[in-house]
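This entry is retained here.
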Amino acid sequence: MKTTTDPSERPDEDTYAGSRSENEYSRLRLQHEFIKYTMAGELVLAPIDFRKSGLRVLDSATGDGYWLVDLAAQLGPTNELVGADIAPQHFIPTDELPANISLRTHNIFESWPADMQKTFDLVHQRFVLMACNDANSVEAIRYLGECVKPGGWIQLHDGDMQTIEDGPMHPAMERFREIVRTGFRMMGFNLSPGPKLVKWLTEAGFANVEERILTIKCGKSSADANQGEKVTKMLLAVLENMIGLSQNVPGFPYSMQEIQDLKPELEAELSLVGNHYKTHVVWAQKPF
């Protein structure tokens, strides 16, 4: 197994909406931990018997490969795990990976290599389609579907940031949502792709489509203070990313100072009152 870092194999354009800083990858690991907590330790909801040997799993938009490393610890060494991402510079080094994990470079808006098509028992992707418009999301799912073997499964997980608690107790969270919603809209992105996943997978020809809606509890709303704090830190990091928009997106109506001023207000509000938002996990089977 190897990590692909040959520049000739890299796509021309990095379409990721967030920063490529170490802080962003720390945010993604925080997100992984509280999502895993919310899913009661489960990483895969699709009904796959991982006691079988020789199964193949693809994690699309894998980031640094952290999700796969966690999955490998649960499954053992008999299955082949492949991660793909457009930015290989942040891959976990090969000598730190389990032997059954390989990482390679790929753009989700391109067809997958022929040697990967129809070869995976599970194709997994999460928290990517927020950085796409609807048409690009449908295209990315179609390409992902090429990798699922007949009878195999696809599992997608994405958010719905419209579904926060609002009202007079939550002015900072409402302001946060409006800033993020405005930025995403101006970039042509989608704040809430999660509720559309069932429709998109059904239209892509998948069968046995199922969904679990998760409630991500922020700050004081969480029964576990540590996990609630992780969600708060993640949201503050998202807000920090919006500062770049204030400087780089023409016409963005919020100044860097406005965003900076909101950060302590949001942190205090989540600590005292809490909040939540929803994410959608959807899994479906490719017909035989």
Summary: The two ends are 29 Å apart (CA to CA).
